[in-house]
Design goal:
flat; alpha+beta; 18 strands
């Protein structure tokens, strides 16, 4: 629940019913420390200046009075206090712009305000709360911004600690420090003047305020939240119960699936063991077949090597025959052996044409050297030619530069008027093309041709450079002299101008000073004249008359003060107060007696009530026993009740029933276990059947998918049918031969048949080369033997051998041999047959996996159909009957248990009734003993006091009337004393007014005399200043004229100087630019001359001539060498032909020798091949392969079964991993815990709801009663009318629903014996007084930790009597609360009568100290001419 225990204050927790001790503890807590306000400083709020120093007010104990005229800013103090502690803006200032001083009044764009409040928290710690605000004026509106505030405290070490807070944080923390809620601070403690009558506003506003004060809305929301939570938990409990039932069924099904899964795992493990054994045997047979295949491959490789060797021999012989044919007549192999040929070749090479070859090589080297020299000469000639062209181009460019230099020098001479020196006799000007010379003086005036080359001597150039330097110095000197002259002129003019302006400024300052003093005196003179109107001048006689009147009023005041009746009234009031005190003591004693008598009466009533309840409980218990006696008799039980202990026989009955109940629960549990087992077996059987049916459907679907038209099974069948047709066409099957396969043959038999057919075709395929080789071998064998190699018959003669050789040659010739023709025809047929069988085997192998899967599916479907074909339904019906029988037995036992539960519940109810009866009997005995003990030693009722309760209450009523009479007498004496005090006050005020008027007139008279003298002095001063002003203006005119003239001269001279400087600068820049261009040309010419390009050009021309001569000489040498080289080449060619002939013969003999050697090697390999057992190895290989295939088929069948078990395992795992069965045991356990805890939470919420609801009702009623009691006392004390005897707050529930508990509030007044709503039926004064009384009562009730109360203009609409009654009530409140050190009452008013009443009432009371000062707020003019609110502290005695 959202309570207030988060604050440091120990708040009331409405979780139990309160007694009166709790109320006393709340109204008068043990600790005496209370929060208070100490000092307030304001700046920039409303009429308080934002620029001047802060206005400070220190709050007194127990009373602070703030007075001032209307509009001076008194209410701003209340607003500042309220904003400092709560952050709430005044009514009508929701946005805050008008709460801060308007920046437009100061002519600024923004204005800031600050409020600082020093408070003492309820923990006794002092702190300063500071808040700042800012208003910014925009074009059309103003924006308000609340800045971050600070709270400054002092830590345990005495150091200041300042913490910055957001506005929202401070709004929460400051009320916590004060120990008062924010609504109390806003609507009770610091209530605004405009909002002071809120207790009599419309119902919605009143309800909102009281709900905030009582925090009713918060606790009503808490009740609603509890009810809502309970509803949600109740719905959650129902959902959890339903989910728990579902999880229970899922848990049972999951157990069956787990058993099936374990069986699948066992079957899979068994199949894995069998498959591993088969795979080991397959591995062994594969190794055996591989070994045989390796041996066969070795034999085939050897046969291939033999064939390759034979081909190699034949090739070598053919090559030898071809070489012999090419040699023709040069063949020496039959005439000369191999060694002789090698010796002849060696001699020929040693004695051959080595000398001729050497000569030929020397001549060729010489010719090659000559050609290289010729090429080098030609390349060098080309390089020289290129360099020559480049030098000629540079020479032409140099001549152009010389011409350009001459033109540039001529241009400089003409434009800049150079003064050239006269040349000596040796200085000449040369024109190379004409070969003539002229003097230097005519250098720039002579005319030359357009294509001539101009040459200038070094003396010419030096003389020209001297002229250039001289002219440059002249131009720069003229430019510098002009600038210096111009600067001197401008400085002189500027100096004269500054002197004139300085003189003008001095005259201006003097004139301004004289005018300012004149205006100041004029304002002072006007102010004096405005303050002394001629119609109200004070005369000396007026002052004397005022003095006489003041003395007269003082005498009358003193006479009134000496009235003896004042002392008598005080003595009478004290006597009545003593009497009132005695009556109050008697009332207190009688009240205690009345309370004791009421307590005795209450206790006796309680004893009677308990006896009545005992009789009722006994009747109810007997009725229950009589009504249920037959049920107990059914179980052999009887019940008789005694008065000694009625619960004992009931406990025996309950224990017996509990024993029977436990036995019956055990039987039900056993029956439930049997039913669950039967149900589990039934569900398990159904699950297995469903799984088998699902497996059957899945396998049938797989079989259908494999048998589709485009599937592998159909393609294999097509291949088998095609093979059978082909074999029948070849002569097997029905008509002849034995056909070992058909369309239903296993696939491994078909593959074996195809392998045999392919092997047969491979064996019948004969290579023509092998046939020819075999025939040649027969021919060779016949040549080497004496008998025929075919029929082993001896030859008759050599002719028969020749016939055999001719026949072998014919058969070996592919073009004429019929053997080759027959072999070719047979080879085509075999090849076609081989291609067909290979294609069929490839197709079958591609789809072999589908066929094996199909065979496995057929076997598994057969097994599954056999399994499903059994009498499954009969077995299922058997399980169903067993389950129904167990459930029926369980239902019967549960009915018996339910009946027994009802009987046990009845017995428990009877036991509870008996216990209640026994408990009531015990309570009766305890109550009697307690009354006997309590009232035997009661000390409040005296022994002689024999009054009964009615008499005591009557005496209390009489004492109350006597108390009211004392109050009335005291009020009458107070009224009489008030009348006397009013007369004294009136005389005092009149005397003070007369004295004040006398002093004011005397001061005005003296001031008027002083002002007259001051006027004369001011007029004389003004006349002298007018003369001085005229003299200064006369001196100003010629100075202004001179300043204007000097400024004009300065501008004219500056313009002329700038023009001349620009002209000279342009001349200098042009001259420098021309000289720079000439220097660039000179530099280029000097670089060319330094490079000596002319001599380099002449050397290139000489080298070209020499190279042309050398090239011609080399060409002649080459022409002479060519005939000699041709003769040497012819001689060398003859010797090479003889050597080549011997080399070719040696190669032929060597080839014949290698062929014979290779032929012997082939014969040895053939002998080794004949010894190898090829047939046995083929048989061994085929046997191993067939065994492997058979084992593979077994493995495939096991794989099919294994796949089915794996699929079933996956299905069971998938089923168990589904949301319904995954972690179902843990979910069932968790859900069961959640269901139990949720039900427990619902019960707890019910108890919390009831406790909080009762506590709220009790708390609200007690608080309203306390408030009304205080209102009743204050109303009787303050209201002096006779029509309204009392007012009170009445509240009623707004809704009958406790969860939506709300209260309506209204203020009612009592007139006689009738009550009516006060709103709309009371006057303005009654409304104001009622609002103040209600606020005081609320403060008394709720401000337990804060003794502050502020009243803003409390006398509005009150007449004299009610003002006096309010003053008396406030004075008595101050006197009664003076013992609380932190009690503070802040009264803000403009009513001086009310202040006087307060002072008189306070002075007549004792027991507290009077305030030292009061505060006055007024509007005063500030230094900026505007009026701001100021706070002044004034001594209390001056009030």
């Amino acid at each position: 629940l959202e309570g207030r225990d988060s604050s440091p204050v120990k708040r009331f927790q409405p979780t139990r019913e309160l007694d009166r001790r709790d109320l006393r503890a709340l109204r008068h807590p043990r600790h005496t420390t209370m929060a208070s306000i100490n000092k307030l400083s304001v700046r920039g709020v409303r009429a308080f200046s934002p620029n001047d120093e802060e206005q400070v007010i220190s709050f007194c104990f127990p009373l602070t009075i703030i007075v001032g005229a209307n509009g001076c800013g008194k209410t701003t103090i209340i607003e500042s206090l309220k904003y400092a502690v709560t952050g709430s803006l005044p009514p009508g200032n929701k946005s805050g712009q008008s709460f801060v001083h308007d920046p437009r009044a100061m002519g600024q764009s923004s204005s800031k305000a600050s409020i600082k409040l020093r408070i003492t928290g309820m923990n006794g710690m002092s702190m300063v709360v500071a808040r700042s605000m800012e208003v910014t004026q925009k074009k059309t509106n103003a924006s308000f911004k609340a800045l971050d505030g600070t709270i400054r405290t002092v830590d345990a070490d005495g150091n200041r600690v300042t913490q910055s807070h957001k506005t929202g944080e401070m709004d929460k923390s400051v009320p916590t420090y004060l120990g008062v809620s924010k609504p109390i601070l806003e609507h009770v403690v610091f209530c605004h003047q405009e909002d002071a009558s809120w207790p009599l506003q419309e119902g919605a506003v009143l309800k909102k305020r009281f709900d905030d004060i009582f925090d009713s809305t918060k606790y009503a929301k808490a009740l609603e939240a509890i009810k809502k939570e309970k509803k949600e938990y109740k719905a959650q409990e129902k959902d959890l119960k339903a989910e728990l039932e579902g999880l229970k069924s899922h848990k049972h099904a999951a157990r069956g699936y787990r058993d099936d899964l374990e069986k699948c795992r066992t079957g899979i493990a068994t199949i894995h063991e069998k498959v591993e054994g088969l795979k080991e045997e397959i591995e062994e047979k594969n190794n055996e077949a591989k070994k045989a295949a390796v041996d066969i491959n070795e034999i085939e490789e050897l046969q291939g090597e033999i064939d390759e060797q034979i081909n190699k021999v034949e090739t070598m012989k053919a090559v030898a025959d071809k070489q012999r044919e090419l040699l023709g007549d040069d063949d020496l192999s039959e005439q000369v052996d191999y060694d002789q040929m090698k010796e002849m070749l060696s001699n020929l090479r040693a004695e051959g044409s080595n000398e001729a070859k050497q000569k030929l090589q020397d001549k060729l080297d010489e010719m090659r050297s000559t050609e290289e020299s010729l090429a080098k000469l030609r390349r060098k000639t080309n390089e020289i030619t290129g360099r020559k062209g480049k030098l000629e181009a540079e020479k032409e460019a140099q001549e152009k530069l010389a011409k350009s230099r001459f033109d540039t020098m001529q241009s400089i001479h003409e434009h800049h008027k150079l003064e050239l020196e006269m040349p000596t006799q040796d200085d000449t000007f040369t024109q190379g093309t004409q070969g003539t010379t002229s003097t230097f003086s005519t250098m720039f005036t002579s005319q030359t041709g357009g294509n001539s080359t101009v040459h200038l001597t070094d003396e010419d150039l030096t003389s020209f450079q001297r002229a250039v330097d001289t002219r440059a110095g002249q131009i720069k000197s003229a430019y510098n002299e002009a600038k210096m002259r111009h600067r001197e002129v401008e400085e002189q003019l500027q100096k004269e101008l500054l002197e004139a302006k300085s003189k003008q400024a001095a005259l201006t300052n003097d004139l301004k000073r004289v005018d300012d003093e004149q205006q100041k005196d004029m304002r002072e003179l006007n102010e004096i004249a405005s303050q002394q109107p001629s119609s109200s001048r004070i005369r000396q006689s007026d002052v004397e008359d005022a003095e006489k009147e003041a003395k007269k009023q003082a005498r009358e005041r003193d006479e009134e003060n000496r009235n003896s009746r004042r002392g008598e009234i005080v003595n009478e009031i004290r006597a009545h107060e003593e009497k009132l005190k005695s009556i109050s003591q008697t009332i207190e004693e009688d009240s205690k007696v009345r309370d004791q008598l009421r307590l005795m009466a209450n206790d006796q009533s309680e004893v009677d009530m308990i006896k009545k309840q005992i009789r009722q409980e006994r009747d109810i218990l007997k009725e229950k026993i009589e009504n249920n006696k037959f049920q107990f008799t059914e179980y052999g039980e009887s019940l008789e009740i005694t008065d000694d202990n009625p619960s004992a026989p009931c406990e025996v009955l309950v224990n017996n029933m509990r024993t029977r109940l436990k036995e019956q629960e055990a039987e039900v549990k056993h029956a439930s276990k049997s039913a669950n087992e039967a149900q589990g077996k039934l569900q398990e059987k159904k699950a297995i059947m469903n799984s088998n049916h699902s497996r059957l459907v899945a396998l049938q679907g797989k079989r259908s998918s494999l048998l589709r038209d485009e599937g592998g099974i159909q393609k294999i069948k097509q291949c088998v049918r095609a093979l059978i047709r082909n074999e029948k066409q070849e002569g097997y099957g029905d008509d002849g031969g034995e056909l070992t396969i058909n369309e239903d043959s296993p696939i491994h038999e078909v593959l074996s048949y195809l392998d045999e057919g392919i092997s047969e075709c491979t064996r019948h395929e004969i290579n023509p080369a092998h046939l020819a080789k075999m025939l040649k071998r027969l021919k060779r064998m016949a040549k080497d033997s004496v008998r025929c190699p075919c029929c082993t018959r001896d030859w008759d003669d050599a002719k028969e051998l020749e016939v055999f050789n001719v026949r072998m040659s014919e058969l070996a010739n592919p073009d004429v041999s019929e053997l080759f023709e027959a072999m070719a025809a047979n080879s085509n047929d075999v090849k076609v047959q081989l291609e067909k069988m290979t294609a069929w085997r490839k197709t079958i192998n591609e789809h072999l996996a589908d066929q094996l899967e199909y065979d496995r599916l057929v076997v598994e479907l057969s097994d599954l159909e056999d399994l499903l074909g059994r009498d499954e339904q009969a077995e299922l019906k058997k399980f169903q009957d067993e389950c129904d029988k167990a459930e029926k037995d369980l239902a019967e036992k549960e009915d018996q248990l339910k009946k027994l539960h009802n009987v046990a519940a009845i017995s428990n109810t009877i036991l509870e009734s008996a216990k209640r009866l026994w408990e009531k009997m015990g309570q009766l005995k305890t109550k009697k003993d307690q009354m006997e003990f309590t009232y035997s030693g009661m000390g409040h009722i005296s022994q002689g006091d024999q009054r009964n309760l009615a008499r005591v209450e009557s005496d209390l009523a009489d004492l109350g009337l006597r108390k009211e009479q004392c109050y009335t007498s005291i009020n009458q004496l107070n009224n009489e004393q008030k009348t006397i005090n009013e007369r004294i006050s009136t005389k005092t005020n009149q005397a003070a007014t007369a004295d004040h008027r006398f002093r004011e007139m005397q001061a005005r008279f003296r001031k008027e005399q002083d002002d007259t003298k001051r006027q004369e002095v001011l007029k004389a001063n003004m006349a002298g200043r007018q003369v001085e002003s005229k003299r200064l203006r006369d001196l100003m005119d010629p100075v202004k004229t001179r300043v204007l003239q000097k400024e004009s001269d300065s501008k004219r001279v500056r313009k002329e100087n700038l023009k001349e400087d620009t002209k000279l600068s342009d001349v200098l820049k042009t001259f420098d630019r021309d000289i720079d261009r000439l220097n660039d040309i000179n530099n280029k010419i000097e670089l060319y001359e330094k490079a000596n390009k002319g001599s380099e050009l002449r050397r290139a021309e000489e080298q070209l001539v020499q190279n042309h001569q050398m090239i011609a000489e080399k060409q002649r040498e080459l022409t002479d060498m060519q005939p000699q080289i041709d003769d040497l080449k012819k001689t060398v060619d003859d010797g090479e032909r003889q050597i080549k002939r011997l080399v070719d013969n040696i190669a032929l003999v060597k080839k014949q020798m290698e062929a014979d050697k290779e032929e012997k090697r082939a014969e040895e390999m053939q002998k080794r091949l004949d010894k190898m057992p090829l047939e046995d190895l083929n048989t061994q290989k085929n046997s191993a392969i067939n065994r492997c295939r058979e084992l593979d088929r077994k493995v495939q069948r096991y794989d099919g079964k294994l796949s089915g078990l794996i699929d079933q395992k996956k299905a069971l795992k998938s089923k168990l991993s589904e949301k319904e069965y995954k972690n179902v045991d843990e979910e069932h356990r968790i859900k069961m815990i959640e269901h139990y805890t949720t039900a427990t939470v619902c019960d707890d919420l019910d108890r919390y709801y009831e406790a909080l609801d009762k506590a709220l009702l009790r708390y609200h009623g007690i608080k309203i009663a306390d408030i009304n009691k205080i209102i009743r006392e204050l109303w009787a004390l303050t209201y002096k009318g006779e029509d309204i005897t009392n007012i009170e707050i009445q509240s009623g529930q707004d809704s009958s629903s406790r969860a939506n508990r709300s209260y309506n509030y209204r203020i009612v007044m009592s007139k006689g014996n009738s009550q009516m709503d006060m709103r709309g039926r009371c006057s303005a004064g009654q409304r104001v007084l009622a609002s103040i009384v209600i606020r005081l009562a609320l403060a008394e009730t709720f401000c337990l930790n804060c003794g502050v109360m502020a009243l803003d203009e409390p006398t509005t609409n009150l007449d004299f009597e009610n003002k006096r009654g309010l003053a008396i009530a406030l004075a008595q409140i101050i006197a009664s609360r003076a013992s609380q050190s932190n009690f503070q009452l802040v009264v803000i008013t403009h009513d001086e009568d009310f202040v006087s009443m307060m002072k008189q009432e306070l002075s007549s009371l004792t027991g507290f100290s009077m305030p030292e000062r009061y505060f006055q707020v007024s509007r005063e003019e500030s230094t900026d001419g505007r009026y701001y609110s100021k706070i002044h502290s004034i001594d209390w005695d001056e009030l």
